[in-house]
Every structure is written in structure tokens, then in C-alpha cells.
């Protein structure tokens, strides 16, 4: 099963600089897509995200709910995993999600 990781952002360049390399390190054995939904950041959030093979969407509104819905509408995964940009999930996160779904 494919997991879509949806990350709403607003001025999260520092957080993404840590989170995205971490996610790419732990997602190697799983079918994962990462979607960044930016809420019109004033910093380099989109530029940082574009350095990685992720989907970057731009919301016209600064609203976490609207950003999460936009990410969900554009997701291809059967499982949606919403993640805050400043959160670092455990290294077993994708295994844990798939185990619980089974």
C-alpha cells in the first residue's frame, strides 16, 4: 500500500531542512510519496522542498485545514499521513502504519 505523507507548511525552511533528509533516509523500503503544501511562506520553504523529489503545492490561503485538504486531494496513496514540518516521527513510522492497517 502506498502512503502519502502530507506536510502543511508556513515559513518552515529550518524544519524542512531537517525533516526531508530524515524522511528520505527511512522511506527507502516503502512506497511513499511526500507532498508539501505551502501556505504562502515568506522564507525559502518552497526552495528547500524543491531540492527533494517531493510534490510541492502552493495554497493561496494560510490555513492548515485548507492546506491539508489540498494535499489530500492531490495524494495518490491509499493511506494519508499528515505530519507537521517540525515533527520527527520514529524511524519505524511507515512500518508501524502499515502494520496497523493490516
Low-confidence regions: none
Approximate strand percentage? 15-25%
Shape: globular
Q: How far do the termini sit from each other?
A: 10 Å
Estimate the mean pLDDT confidence: 96
* Strands ordered across the widest β-sheet: 3-2-1-4
DSSP summary: helix tally: 4
Percent helix: 25-40%
Structural class by sheet pairing and helices: alpha/beta
- The count of β-strands is 4
Radius of gyration: 13 Å
How would you spell out the order of helices and strands? Answer: EHEHEHEH
What do these coordinates show?
It is a single chain. By secondary structure, this protein is α/β, with parallel strands linked by helices. Helix content is 37%, strand content 22%. It is built from four helices and four strands; from the N terminus they run E-H-E-H-E-H-E-H. Strands 3-2-1-4 form a four-stranded parallel beta sheet. The model has no long low-confidence stretch (mean pLDDT 96).
Topology:
Layout: E1 3-9, H1 13-26, E2 32-38, H2 45-49, E3 55-58, H3 64-73, E4 79-82, H4 93-101
Parallel strand pairs: 1-2, 1-4, 2-3
How do you describe this structure in short?
With 102 residues, the chain is an alpha/beta fold. The protein is 37% helix and 22% strand. A four-stranded parallel sheet has the order 3-2-1-4.
List descriptors.
102 residues; alpha/beta; globular
